[in-house]
């Protein structure tokens, strides 16, 4: 039986939206220093819908993502995982990072959502792994921005 699952993590950053967007928009995950070893742009130009990212993680995992939607006006990027070595226990993964301006103090809310389609009993482990990685990545983004 296939099932679909959404994982969402969020965090507020005490920085203007354009400052945070400059770290998120390239989709190179350079801010994610605790997990990402390197990122290469393939199959297009940086910031171009349809371009791909080959992300090599420090644990040896290599994943390839394709940018499927990008908006400088609405401050979001959506990318799809198209390959993973080793394979993950999910048949499909679509990720969106959205930024929202908090007008009260000119800070930024970052929301990171992932929708997974998986088969079998692996859904719980995929969800928990995704949740932990998002929390780690958002912590690293805070460090990259000079936040606590």
Automatic annotation (TrEMBL):
Superkingdom field: Eukaryota
Coiled-coil portions: none
PANTHER family hit by this protein: BLL4707 PROTEIN (PTHR39332), SRPBCC FAMILY PROTEIN (PTHR39332:SF7)
Name recorded for this polypeptide: Bet v I/Major latex protein domain-containing protein
Native organism: Spizellomyces punctatus (strain DAOM BR117)
